[in-house]
Amino acid sequence: MTVLDFAPLNRIRQIVLARYILASVGALAVDMGTFRALLSAGISPMAASAVGYSIGIAVHWILSSRKVFADQVAAGGMARTRQKAMFVISALLGLGVTTMIVGGGSAAGVDPSIAKLCAIVVSFTLTWLLRKRVVFR
């Protein structure tokens, strides 16, 4: 073993949840940036939330399949197609949860950004469990 094997960053990279959190933060930055830009452009909170989430999920697939679950990604063919489909289904479930929370919060008079933050917590938990236990098992 080399000195680099003991570096804290190397250890963090080996922990799947930590890598998933880092990928989620990157995807979230894209999601929230898009969401805030669309809100500023006058798009409804629900639509802005859905578009931001959708773009963020594309970023999340790239990061998840290459950096988080790289050793569990199907090699190709039908298995890879099935895995991508399950990832998209998990994303759609997260999207549904996100838009319902943001829409419901907005309708109740909650600031859209606060509703979005609440949705992030719920959506993150749901998609992590689905991806860890179903998509990339």
Could you explain the architecture of this structure?
By secondary structure, the protein is mostly helical. The chain has one domain (3-135). The chain contains five helices and no strands. The protein has helices at residues 8-14, 16-40, 45-68, 77-107, 112-135. α2 runs antiparallel to α3 and α2 packs antiparallel against α5 (112-135). The protein is globular and about 45 Å long.
Short key terms for the protein model shown above:
137 residues; mainly alpha; 5 helices
Topology:
Blueprint: H1 8-14, H2 16-40, H3 45-68, H4 77-107, H5 112-135
Concise structural overview:
By secondary structure, this protein is mainly alpha-helical.
Number of helices: 5
Radius of gyration: 17 Å
Mean pLDDT: 87
Order of helices and strands: HHHHH
**Poorly predicted ranges:** none
